[in-house]
Amino acid sequence: MRVTGRVHRPAPTGVNRATRSVRSLVLAAATAAAVLTGCSTQDAVCGGGEYPVMTIGGTGSTCVPDGEEPPEGYTRYPQGKVPEHVGDEWDTYWQTHTVDEDGKTVEVPGGE
Q1: Is the Cβ–Cβ distance between 103 and 74 less than 8 Å?
Q2: Is 80 left (phi over 0), alpha (psi -120 to 50) or beta?
């Protein structure tokens, strides 16, 4: 039997800790990136540089460039009730509600 003078020693603990720390950091960064971009996979109601407006007395809508007023027959959504993504709470709400000529929120006859 041949015997060598070599002894297997594990790597110093500092190296293992550093490796685990780097792996943990990479995993945390990947998780954060996935969470932060999760909302961006939803379809936005309007593109960048635009805001949504709705038809007066109906359930139609369109997008208007920031800084411009809504076209005739359209109005801004009431503050705090602006849909941001297709299918979100306010997008769904405005499928059955509208704003009348007096600016009052009313239910749409027939639901749409």
Answers
A1: no
A2: left
Q: How far is CA 75 from CA 39, 63, 65, in A?
A: 27, 11, 14
Paired with 97 in beta bridges are 107
Give the tens place of pLDDT for each residue, 34-56: 445 454 557 999 999 999 999 99
CB 101 within 8 A of CB 56: yes
**How many Cα atoms are found within 13 Å in the side-chain-facing hemisphere of 111?**
1
> How far is the first Cα of the chain from the last one, in angstroms, to the nearest whole number?
89
Residue 96, SS3 per DSSP: coil
> What distances in angstroms separate CA 35 from CA 40, 48, 67, 86, one per listed residue?
10, 21, 31, 19
